[in-house]
């Protein structure tokens, strides 16, 4: 089976959407599935207002059509609601082609945090975008339930995984006073970072990541160590050196960084928001509380071994199975024969997969 994923989020961006799409594509190869991408790299781009390091694609309908026809996919998945996603959606609608979508980002909250646009207007636009989809994939049960309550149809689950080889407990040192309270992610207003940075905590607060709010936050909180954007082994070292991972966001739909921290043996402190609540639940690997300072201090007592064991249950292989299985179930029938046939055992559901 050949799947074409259309996405407005792509390299060199460092975020959960890009990591999810690229890692699932790699994992899907073992299922006999070939995933290719239609990305901003094929088009001219402009800087996104308020995010000078993010580029918005300027696709043309003609080139979108040509790229899709050259890819000749069996299935089309639209991962984002940006210009590329909109034109691919239009292409599919004009030709009566089925497609699936996924919901990665809580744009209503993000946009309302910057512009005087009611969240209800943005939710209405998102409903229209996803309405024609055969399946809208959500990362957690709580998000899936919320989307259904907001009038989205055909909502199914597509959970996430973590690279437990890269992110692992190991000896490393940031040469900073302990305990080290670490936060990783985009440094932007919607991440609610000040709820963490303003806390009175012992040791050192460390932020890994970049974004439009980094410079003003560095000036406001000079005692906080900002390490900038990291990836690969450098990021793995930063996780492993921490004592507690702090996740102040209340708007993330999942938070891959939660699993990366846990795979590194680092307990989590977070607000009881839908993302952390669904990822961690009642497992003894983190403390979720409206009192974030209390959560940070209490999380220091959690077993690092328990965190690692929890993360080992979340694989990218299972995530790829869920993604491919969701797509397979939306079609009236799969093509048969050759490499295009996906065996039933590869498409078995894991807990909570069914719509």
Mean pLDDT: 89
Query: Strand order across the biggest sheet?
Result: 2-1-5-6-7-8
CATH superfamily placement of the largest domain: Glycogen Phosphorylase B
Tally of contiguous helical segments: 14
Helix percentage: 25-40%
CATH architecture of the largest domain: 3-Layer(aba) Sandwich
Number of strands: 14
The CATH class of the largest domain is identified as Alpha Beta
Distance between the termini: 22 Å
Shape type: globular
Largest sheet: 6 strands, parallel
Task: Please report which band the strand proportion falls in: under 5%, 5-15%, 15-25%, 25-35%, 35-45% or over 45%.
Answer: 15-25%
Explain how this protein is built.
The structure is a single chain. The chain is an alpha/beta fold. It folds into 2 domains: about 1-160 and about 315-345, Rossmann fold, CATH 3.40.50; about 180-310, Glycogen Phosphorylase B (Rossmann fold, 3-Layer(aba) Sandwich). It contains 14 helices and 14 strands. The protein has helices at about 15-30, 60-70, 85-95, 105-110, 120-130, 140-150, 195, 215-220, 230-240, 255-265, 275-280, 290-300, 305-310, 315-330, and strands at about 1-5, 35-40, 45-50, 50-55, 75-80, 100, 135-140, 155, 180-185, 205-210, 225-230, 245, 270, 285-290. A 6-stranded parallel sheet has the order 2-1-5-6-7-8, sandwiched between helices. A 6-stranded parallel sheet has the order 11-10-9-12-13-14, with helices on both faces. Strand 9, helix 7 and strand 10 (about 205-210) form a beta-alpha-beta unit. Helix 1 crosses helix 14 (about 315-330), helix 2 packs across helix 3 (about 85-95) and helix 10 (about 255-265) packs across helix 13. The chain starts with a strand and ends in a 25-residue tail after the last helix.
